[in-house]
Amino acid sequence: MATLMTGFVFISPTVSAQQGRVSSLPLPRFVSLRTEPVNMRTGPGVRYPVMWVYQRRNLPVEITDEFDTWRQIRDPDGEEGWVHQSMLSGQRTGLVTNDTSFLYKGSAPSSAVIAEVSTGVVIIVDRCPKQTELCLVEANGTKGWLHRDLFWGLYVYESVD
Q: What is the spatial distance between Cα 160 and Cα 129, in angstroms, rounded to a whole number?
């Protein structure tokens, strides 16, 4: 069994149903950082000061507002600011929030454990069927099924196909 590690602190998002003024996509919604580095600014434009520089490609973030080509985001630590839309990807990812989480071989918790995933590991969310406990994810090249409530980057009611 492989052990995958790193570390983070997390805040759960609040959810409301609205559409983005620019994209007409749902707000809030989860996306990921397309590249590194990514500058988070205090406002929607290059003239605003940089608050944070993210050095973690695929980190999940939550879009909470839109202005022109800029998106207001919230990161897993609850920090909020603005990034250019070109720095974001629609690829769904998650950040493991539990101290010890297991990847299962099959889509049932009774399946064999194939890896242990530590807090702070970024996972790629491949599929998360509606009304299921587990999501098919990839963590550091290992594919398996992970409990949906053990990572940040997915709403309770949400499915990913």
A: 6
Q: Which residue has the tokens 């980190």?
A: 59
Rounded to an integer, what distance in angstroms lies between the CA atom of residue 58 and that of residue 89? 8
| Global pTM exceeds 0.85 | yes
- pLDDT, one tens digit per residue, over 60-106 is 999 999 999 999 999 999 999 999 999 999 999 999 999 889 999 99
Identify the residue whose tokens are 């590194």: 36
Strands 113-118 and 2-4: parallel
Burial class (CB in 10 A: 0-12, 13-18, 19+), 64: middle
Helix (H, G, I), strand (E, B) or coil at 50: strand
| Residue 86 backbone phi and psi in degrees, to 5 | -70, -15
- Measured distance CA(104)–CA(132) in Å, rounded: 14
Domains and CATH numbers, the chain: 26-92 (2.30.30.40), 94-152 (2.30.30.40)
Apex CA 159: angle with CA 100 and CA 141, to 5°? 45
